[in-house]
């Protein structure tokens, strides 16, 4: 039986949007124009994680094995950069900022989920 998830799509999107918005204020090289833009970025990031990330993980499996999974950080950074390309008002300056940003987004999203 699948695990029951108490938080719906809207709640998850708002949590991720909040994490993205806060990350833009914490990480140099990541800029966002408004909270509305963060909501759009959260939706696009969710789609990228669902549709693109699995393919990238399979294609990068050999290098992921060699790096003991650390290459996944690079994939996450690339996804965040892709999201910035498709979201007007969301700018990620480089891969380093994207990797750090994705880590911060993940941590903030986790903490917000724990609190709520």
TrEMBL record:
Pfam families: Phage_holin_4_2
Keywords: Membrane, Transmembrane, Transmembrane helix
Cited InterPro entries: Phage_holin_4_2
Top-level taxonomic group: Bacteria
Transmembrane segments: 30-48, 55-83, 89-115
Protein name: Phage holin family protein
Source species: Caloramator australicus RC3
């Amino acid at each position: 039986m699948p695990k029951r998830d108490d938080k719906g799509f809207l709640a998850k999107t708002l949590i991720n949007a909040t994490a993205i918005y806060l990350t833009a204020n914490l990480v140099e090289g990541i800029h966002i124009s408004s909270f509305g833009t963060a909501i759009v970025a959260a939706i696009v990031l969710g789609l990228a994680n669902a549709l693109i990330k699995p393919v990238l993980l399979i294609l990068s499996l050999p290098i992921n094995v060699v790096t003991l999974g650390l290459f996944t950080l690079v994939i996450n950074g690339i996804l965040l950069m892709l999201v910035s390309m498709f979201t007007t008002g969301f700018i990620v300056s480089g891969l380093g900022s994207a990797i750090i940003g994705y880590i911060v987004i993940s941590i903030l999203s986790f903490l917000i989920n724990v609190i709520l």
